[in-house]
Amino acid sequence: MxxxxxxxxxxxxxxxxEQKLSDYVNNSLSNIERNEVERHTIxxxxxxxxxxxxxxxxxxxxxxxxxxxxxxxxxxxxxTILWLSGIAASILAILIVNNLKLNNQFTAEGDKKIIKExxxxxxxxxxxxxxxxxxxxxxxxxxxxxxxxxxxKEVNSPRQKPSEVINKKSKADFSTTNFETDxxxxxxxxxxxxxxxxxxxxxxxxxxxxxxxxxNEENTIVINEKRNYFKTNAxxxxxxxxxxxxxxxxxxxxxxxxxxxxxxNSRKKLxxxxxxxxxxxxxxxxxxxxxxxQFENAIKQxxxxxxxxxxxxKAQLYTGKSHLKLNRPLDSVKFLTEALKGNKKTKKEAKxxxxxxx
Amino acid sequence: MRAIDSNITDNELLIKYKSTENxxxxxxxxxxxxxxxxxxxxxxLEDEDNAKDVCMEVYELLSIKLIQHEVTHFKSWLxxxxxxQCMQYLRKKNKSKKNIQEYQLNYKEDMEFSLETHxxxxxxxxxxxxxxxxxxxxxxxxxxxxxxxxxxxxYNQISAQTKHTLKKVKSYIQNGKRNLKIxxxxxxx
Lengths: 358, 189
Description:
The structure holds 2 protein chains of 2 kinds.
Chain A: H1 3-8, H2 18-25, H3 31-41, H4 45-56, H5 60-69, H6 72-128, H7 133-156, H8 162-175, H9 183-236, H10 256-276, H11 278-291, H12 295-302, H13 312-325, H14 329-339, H15 344-357
Chain B: H1 10-20, H2 23-45, H3 48-68, H4 74-92, H5 97-110, H6 123-136, H7 139-150, H8 155-162, H9 166-187
């Protein structure tokens, strides 16, 4: 015997590379290369299992490549960062929307005050100079229009500082107007508007805290309503019914999140309930496979039914029939004899089939 | 993401990961063996999606256990972790007991060799007794061993030549090799 080849029996080989493994599975290796791979796998459980696994499943190499192209082990960090940033963004969005709602209320009230005060200012001037009367009316109209416009602008830019808002307002309100007034008058108007806006900003601060308190109160009312709803439901519905028990006896201090969790759990339970009737659907799917001439799949499906199942003997009959169709009469006899223990119909069919086999 | 030199051995990567806890090293180590992990999961779970899930679980587990434990034989340890994770996954998924029992039976049949996969017997000592031991093997084992190691034929060729099934060919070679090892060890005292 060749000494060099005798050495091969206990030689050490490195584990299979990705390329070699895929080549082996795809049958693209020469016989000697295959022998080399097999010499390693005869000893290495890891590699031989991997080869068995890849050989068992169709398109397994392609699926593995897709897994590698989308490497979860490299994406972990970015995923968590994305996840956190997503949460942060959603919280910000909620805060912004809330702010906008509050601003809507306050600016409307504030605008009314500005108009009133400017109107008062002009009526005072009016008493001094009656020639300005038609212009004042125009100004009042313009200001009322402008105030609604500036209110819209404010809504679109909620993060602006009060001072910036004031400056922009003053520019926006008076730079584009067609007033035929003196510079001194304009300065006076700007001052008035500035003062009013400053007082309004101060009011906003106090009102926002007050409104937040209100919102909190509303939330607690909602929570209490939900709690009461669960409590009454628990009282109304007797135990051991098919409706889901929310275990309300032990949840007197639930908040909204907890209540939502309970709701989502109940939905999960409903889904689980639908899984509970799987054996029946296994029979149905087995029969449909049989009818579609997919006998191997039918056998796999029907094997899922256990002895305790009421449809077990029917499943045995169909398994026997599937084996018969696959030209495996010996296997089918085993299942058909088991089917003889079933109801009249299955017993009759099994008997006739067994006769035909004999 | 740091690029890691492909010449670094598994053990070096392992030590670097342990000392720095930098997941780049772990990812590189994991990626080197992903084809084996995924394949083993496919064999045990028979489903690609489940296999992917278990691969992720194995990665999570490695990130913790490699720091906690002292691992000397990384590959055999990794195989054991993957196998255990597959078993856990099957139990979690409430697969029928039959499935698990079937696997355990196969596993026992397959475990003719220890997980310390590559036997290290002194070559010079082997050669003096090897031929004699081969001659003492059963006919089917002797034939398969000779065809496989001395004629360098692959399973398919041996199966075609001897008309044994592929499974039997593999089994004869495994059993033959085990018997050879026992024979050599007894002769060397």
